[in-house]
């Protein structure tokens, strides 16, 4: 079993930065991939970024490429999402999720989910 806890959300202005954290416990993450998703009210859950824990290979949605960076800290068993140049359309509940498969952007391919952290960007 894997437990994921997100933190770091908040209310910021357009153009500001935030760093989200996803702390994992329960199992060694060396075989997993970890993704960040977001969901705004009334909308479907949307893929944001993914990192393969062992190789460090990353993927990003087009909407965040160049502004967001996903990274990991092996010693802390934590994945980060550095979000720069935030826009009001980035407002959503952000989730981290973990999986053993090679699925990249489909949320149904992820087995474990955190409870989410709210990011609100004002204009």
Summarize the structure.
The protein has 123 residues and is an all-beta fold. It contains no helices and eleven strands.
Q: Would you kindly provide a written description of the structure presented here, covering whatever features stand out?
A:
- Helix content is 0%, strand content 50%.
- The chain is an all-beta fold and 123 residues long.
- The strands form two sheets. Strands 2, 4, 5, 6, 9, 10 and 11 form a seven-stranded mixed sheet that branches.
- It starts with a strand and ends with a strand.
- The model has no long low-confidence stretch (mean pLDDT 95).
Principal-axes geometry comes out as globular
Portion in strands: over 45%
Distance between the termini: 40 Å
Instruction: Work out the number of β strands.
Output: 11
Helix content: under 10%
Note the run of SSEs as H and E: EEEEEEEEEEE
SS-based structural class?
Answer: mainly beta
Average pLDDT confidence is: 95
Helix count?
A: 0
Q: Segments where pLDDT lies below 50 for 5+ residues?
A: none
Mind telling me the C-alpha Rg? 13 Å
Let me know the largest β-sheet. Answer: 7 strands, mixed
Structure characteristics:
123 residues; mainly beta; seven-stranded mixed β-sheet; 11 strands
Q: What's the helix and strand layout?
A:
Elements (H helix, E strand, L loop, with lengths): L2 E5 L2 E4 L4 E8 L7 E7 L6 E7 L5 E3 L7 E6 L4 E6 L8 E8 L12 E2 L3 E6 L1
Parallel strand pairs: 2-11
Antiparallel strand pairs: 1-3, 3-8, 4-5, 4-9, 5-6, 7-8, 9-10, 9-11
């Amino acid at each position: 079993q894997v437990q994921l806890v997100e933190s770091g959300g908040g209310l910021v202005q357009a153009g500001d930065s935030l760093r989200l954290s996803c702390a994992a416990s329960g199992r060694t993450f060396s075989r997993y991939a970890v993704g960040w998703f977001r969901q705004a009210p009334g909308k479907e859950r949307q893929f944001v970024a993914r990192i393969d824990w062992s190789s460090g290979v990353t993927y990003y949605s087009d909407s965040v490429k160049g502004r967001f960076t996903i990274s990991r800290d092996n010693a802390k068993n934590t994945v980060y999402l550095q979000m720069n140049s935030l826009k009001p359309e980035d407002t959503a509940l952000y989730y981290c999720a973990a999986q053993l498969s090679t699925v990249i952007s489909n949320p149904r391919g992820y087995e474990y989910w955190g409870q989410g952290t709210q990011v609100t960007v004002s204009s």
